[in-house]
Amino acid sequence: MSRRGGGGGRRGGGRGKEPRDQPPAPSISKGEGGSGRGAPSPGAHPAVPLAQAPPASEASTSTPSVVTAMENLTIQVPPSSSKSVKFPSRPGLGTIGMKCVVRANHFLVNVADRDLHHYDVSITPEVLSKAVNRDIMCQLVRQYRDSYLGNRLPAYDGSKGLYTAGPLPFTSKEFSVTLDNKDEPSGSARERKFNVVIKFASKADLEHLKQFLRSRQLDAPHETIQALDVVLREAPSRLYTVVGRSFFACTLGQPGDLTGGVVYWRGYYQSLRPTQMGLSLNIDVSARSFYEPITVIEFVRKHLGVHVMPNQLSDQNRVKIKKALRGVKVVPTYRQTARRYKITGVSAQPISQLTFLDDKGAQKSVVQYFREMYRINLTHTNLPALQAGSDTKPVYLPIEHCKIVEGQHYSKKLNDSQVTNMLRATCQRPPERQYSIQAMVDRNDYNRNQLVSTEFGIQVSNELTSIDARVLPPPRLQYHHTGEEKQVVPSVGKWSMINKKMVNGGSVDYWSCINFSRVDPRSVHQFCQGLAYMCESKGMVFNPDPVNPNYSAQTNDYKAALVDIYSKCAKTLSDPTKLQLLIVILPESPGTYGTIKRVCETELGVVSQCCKPNQRNMNSGQYLENLSLKINVKVGGRNHVLLDAIQRRIPLVSDRPTIIFGADVTHPSPGEDSSPSIAAVVASMDWPEVTKYKGLVSAQAHRVEIIQDLYKLERDQKGGTVHAGMIRELLLSFHRSTRQKPHRIIFYRDGVSEGQFNQVLLYEMDAIRKACASLEEGYLPPVTFVVVQKRHHTRLFPAKHGDRHTTNKFGNILPGTVVDTKICHPTEFDFYLCSHAGIQGTSRPTHYHVLFDENRFSADALQMLTNSLCYTYVRCTQSVSIVPPAYYAHLAAFRARYYIEGEVSDSGSIAGGGRATRGRDGEVPALPKIKDSVKEVMFYC
Predict the structure, then answer these.
(1) CB-based contacts of 210: which residues, under 8 Å, 6+ apart?
(2) What is the spatial distance between Cα 257 and Cα 418, in angstroms, rounded to a whole number?
(3) Which of 171-185, 261-275, 778-792 shows the lowest mean pLDDT across its residues?
(4) CA-based angle 472:475:478, to the nearest 5?
(5) Are 6 and 272 in contact (CB under 8 A)?
(6) Which of 270, 643, 192 is nearest to 443 (CA)?
(7) Residue 81 pLDDT level (bands cut at 50, 70, 90)
(8) In 3-state terms, what secondary structure has residue 362?
(9) Residue 309 and residue 781: Cα distance in Å, rounded?
(10) Range with lowest mean pLDDT among 23-37, 492-506, 716-730, 838-852
(11) How many CB atoms neighbour CB 232 within 10 A?
């Protein structure tokens, strides 16, 4: 979902695309319990515990009180503009923390007072390529600028929008444009004629933009920002390859090899944004994967990872190549023309077996055709042919005589090796990245561009923005009182477990180990004993003797081996539910982790801990300590807690029972057109500690971002209506765990782009309201809804590189650095927080944007809460970059994908254990149910 829109992609305005296949967004109704910030305090709610609410099976249409509450929460289609949704205003600026100065890759933009006009463009015959559209409009401007365009120099978005700095001398006019067709052979017509209609659409209001930037207007003038953004993107859109909001070219940096026929190109991201300081141009260096411009046969060899091209392809390799090349443009090397063909497939038969009917109706082989027509004797006749055109009228091209056209984005999922190569090549420390960004800005030289500077009067600063920031203090962490160190204050985002014991150590009485690797049994036994000792020394109760010792399974049938050891343990224990933990030594070959997790969690109902078979590192103290942290939370323990939490000193969390949610939706990899999206919601199950999070997962329609199963009505066996959904289940679980109902809800929502803010807020807030009302009439706890954004291009640099007081040893800004001025929204409640200590490359701060806030958080309260929570992540002893509830939701969603897809092979096909991703009538089948014994703990960690 990507994610970041530029000028006009905000809140459904401008030209941003709405998510497809999504239900109408409901309105946020609050019944009679209150309205927004004026809602009654949690203490005013009826003191009826949730345990007295009707159980799910009874809370059907026969429950009048619940029905009444639900009728007040009707789903309605929102206004077409959605402008009626107003996000919370900034409650003030934060003040807590050590003051410092940072620099951001935002460049101030000043706009002269121009009379901006927007025109609609219609080109016939229709052209799908934006590059060709730009060529047409460039030719039109060259041909008609003086005579019919009033000497205006317009900016064009490559589609339907044209913008001018003043009116054109007409409201509507049709032009005829002739364009050379470079794809046609020299003997045929090399020209194509187009009719272009330019029609006045609207005037952009610069005064409205100025008032909005001064906080005197609440609604952002999306069309005006869109117009200015198009102006700034006009030149690079013609010069470079455009991918999303980024530009790439070989001339923008040295390309590099990613292996497999894929290379990376360097470039830059650019987006115009309204901020507190005014209009800001966000520019960041970037890199993307592209097809290597080589012969197709060489690409096939590299993509298959072989040194010598095979004489023929297996069905599996043919499908792999078909998926890799579908949609790629190639140019034949046997013709003088530069005509390009788009590959639609790969023939199922070798090219030697392909025939067609010639002009005389005679059957002719493709091999014979190329021999007679082009005097080419094909040598790789056992290989399939590339197919262009349609299935009814295919065009066959020999693999050995086609070359991949340069500059085509490789949108498929990169394999692990390619990802590693990309990160290694593009990872830059803060000084180098800042220098690269500055060099890119200097190269673009916006202020000398005729269209930008002279025509539209836009001036772009060439200096990074200096910002007053603050470094929030780290929280004090509480460990068990029997350890030598009971408390610790992290230093630069890190601390250690030395001399400390887990605050609540779990108990493991019955466990076993299965070894799928080639590590010898003696080493496995030594490893297990070391792990048991480590867990014991850190505060757990851990029986050193496994139920079934030294179980090795050298097999490819992992499910059968897991079922076998589980059965043996159950026989020994006389009760299969007693087995608390299964330690799994993974095989050396990849591709088994997902199968193991699926079998353990959805079929056997046992928590597992997978370990890599690296004998050199398996017995290291650090590795065993990290495993102990994971195992403790998987068996219901706590590693550490915030001291402020147990002492009830966290504002708007500790004073009254509060539940903290995290939610995320993960989507299938590029090229997977049928796999569902996976939604995950986690929620804290302990108060006031807020460290244990129960996770629920659900499959939903392909690439739908709104979470469908937050609240739903289902039919029971008797035909009645039953309230259900993830929010309701988690609220009930919170009550069972704490014996209290939540008086407040804090909801961290990951993975939402700005263009989806309205729709996600309206639908998901309504689902939260309905879930609460279904439990108890009038139960409407105040909600704070915060979007967590990681996929953005804002980077923060120290004002002085190398300053030990403001940077860590890797040159990054200090953990806890928060920014809520200048580059943030002009009026709304948002901030950037770098909560972690960046080790590799340049730290990316997380952007938090509050969309709904009935709890009335101050800036300091929400920033401090979010930063403190980042120190409660259970898998390590360091702060993390995003708030843990959102992090856990991402982990849970990622885990659940294994349940339906098994292991996905390199070809994109589903390997063993995969399940159908579409049911009858296009319905998404439900995920396999996670066993209750697993679901109640943090199994996803």
Answers:
(1) none
(2) 9
(3) 171-185
(4) 175
(5) yes
(6) 270
(7) very low
(8) coil
(9) 65
(10) 23-37
(11) 26
Read off the amino acid at residue 484. E
What span, in angstroms and rounded, lies between the C-alpha atoms of 261 and 384?
Answer: 19
Q: Where are the beta strands (DSSP E) in 339-439?
A: 341-342, 345-350, 355-357, 363-365, 384-389, 394-397, 402-404
- Measured from the Cβ of residue 328, the count of other Cβ atoms closer than 10 Å reads 18
**79 Cβ partners below 8 Å, 6+ apart?**
none
SS3 letters across 475-526:
CCEECCCCCCCCEECCECCECCCCCCCCCECCEECCEEEEECCCCCHHHHHH
Residue among 519, 539, 538, 518 nearest 527 (CA)? 519
Query: Phi, psi at residue 335, to the nearest 5°?
Result: -120, 150
Biggest CA pair distance of the chain? 94
Integer Cα distance of 215 and 829 in angstroms: 13
> Are 707 and 764 within 8 A, CB to CB?
yes
Mean pLDDT of 465-480: 98
Mean pLDDT over residues 715-736, rounded?
Answer: 94
**CB-count burial class (<10 Å; 0-12, 13-18, 19+) for 639:** buried
In 3D, which of 536, 534, 514, 533 has the Cα closest to residue 524? 514
- DSSP line for 54-116: PPTTT-STT-HHHHHHHHTS---PPPSS-TT--PPBP------SEEEEEEESEEEEEE----E
Give me the count of residues in the chain: 941
**Average pLDDT of the residues in 305-319:** 92
Q: By C-alpha distance, which of 552, 526, 532 is closest to 615?
A: 526
Q: What average pLDDT does range 546-558 have in this prediction? A: 88
Q: What is the 3-state secondary structure (H, E, C) of 369-382?
A: HHHHHHCCCCCCCC
Q: Which long-range contacts (CB under 8 A, 24 or more apart) does 426-429 make?
A: 426/264, 426/266, 426/287, 427/840, 427/841, 428/285, 428/841, 428/842, 429/810, 429/811, 429/841, 429/842
- For residue 250, pLDDT over 50 is answered with yes
Token representation of residue 358: 């010639």
pLDDT tens column, 87-106: 999 999 999 999 999 999 99
Q: What angle do CA 335, 341, 346 make, to 5 degrees?
A: 110
Spatial CA neighbour of 914 closest among 591, 697, 670: 591
Residue 157 to residue 153: CA distance in whole angstroms: 14
Measured in whole angstroms, the distance separating CA 228 from the mean position of its chain's CA atoms is: 28
pLDDT single digits (tens) 644-670: 999 999 999 999 999 999 999 999 987
pLDDT at 430: 97
User: Would you state the pLDDT for residue 902?
Assistant: 55
pLDDT at residue 920 in the model: 46
Dist. CA 771–CA 776, nearest whole Å? 9
- For the chain, helix, strand, coil in percent to 5 are 30, 25, 45
List the alpha helices (DSSP H) in 353-429: 366-374, 416-426
User: Which string of b and e fits 452-491 if b means at least 16 CB within 10 Å?
Assistant: bbebbebebbeebbebebbbbebbebbbbeebeebebebe
User: CB 922: neighbour CB atoms within 10 A?
Assistant: 9
Number of other CB atoms surrounding residue 99 within 10 Å = 9
What are the phi and psi torsion angles at 813 (to 5°)? Answer: -65, 160
pLDDT at residue number 187? 40
296, two tokens: 């197709």
Q: Residue 332, preceding bond cis, omega within 30 degrees?
A: no
CB 451 within 8 A of CB 155: yes
Helices H, strands E: what count in the chain? 20, 42
User: Which pTM value belongs to this model?
Assistant: 0.89
Higher pLDDT, 919 or 210: 210
Q: CA torsion sign, 389 to 390 to 396 to 397?
A: positive
The rounded distance, in Å, linking the Cα atoms of 796 and 800 is: 12
